[in-house]
Predict the structure of Fe2OG dioxygenase domain-containing protein.
Amino acid sequence: MPVAILPEFPTDVPTHPLLVVDYELIKSGNEQEIDVLYKAATSLGFWYLKNHGCDEDVENMFDMGAETMNLPLEEKMTYEQGDGGSSFGYKHRGAYIVNASGETDQSEFLNIAKDDALAWPKQVYRSYPSTVNARMESTVIPFVKKSIEINDTILGVFNDKLGLPKGTLQKFHSMEEISGCEARTIKVPKNLPLGKQALGAHTDYGSLSFLHNRVGGLQVLPPGVDEWQYVKPVPGLAICNIGDALTILSGGILHSNIHRVFPPPGAHAKFDRWSQVFFYRPGDSIVLRPLVDESPLIAEAVGRLSEERKAALDPGVTANDWNIRRRKYARMKNMTGPETWKAGRGTEQGRV
Ligand SMILES: O=C(O)CCC(=O)C(=O)O
Ligand SMILES: [Fe+2]
């Protein structure tokens, strides 16, 4: 683990509390806990998850991430994801823009496709640095498999709460189909100059994000609020959130909230910031549209939307095209002006 002992998260910065969901209770079908989860998913769209049983896997992923980020930049650059909209591989610091004026980001990413991990030692998309290969079996595959299991359980809860025929959402996330699901390690260097954004405001592209961090810096802009608020890292609790794909499929019932990463506040600023995430995303061929024919609840929710919101939640493209478009226009090299920034936006349009 890259950080040994951390000072307390500062108490004098705006912080947003999250509901705490107990994964063990969710797994056992506890109705009360399912209600807490659904409340979180339909309000802010972020919650803490306890008892997920992944602590050791996450620690191992942090170690793998540190070993990889410590490689020389020239070596990491041979695995760069490129400007065509692919996500898998390495993203160097400054490759993304954080706003319409074209300021660049301060985060380094390593993204490992679930399809490459599960097919190992075969390759579906690409190769990875030696530090990843060395830990594929001991570290990456177990983390990917456990993350999939947890996210699939949560997806099943949403499926039933939304009144969808049994297994509908899970079918859209079949592990038989290739998808944008990926494990991501993020490094943000310590002592960033004030005002520099580590990662610009965005909504996540896929269905569910399963995030682990120790050092603060993640911020949310809750609905109806004008001030960005930190999400406090709590040891042992994962931070989970809804992504755009689930917002679209549910006709806006599940909420994909805008968030960003700022330099860590207070004494946390003196530490490198590491995140470990698993992004759960629909199969590449799944068409993103509200499931109005499959659920009266979703049909009703869509019926209440403004025409503008209705159009925004019915892009009618596949999950793969959605991901490619959003990533492509996040890349600094593809920026020609505010219009390319706008072209990369998701369901948060109108909120940035
Ligand atoms: O590092 C974090 O806390 C959040 C990262 C994030 O929002 C993302 O990778 O989409
Ligand atoms: Fe995100």
User: Anything to note?
Assistant: The mean pLDDT is 95.
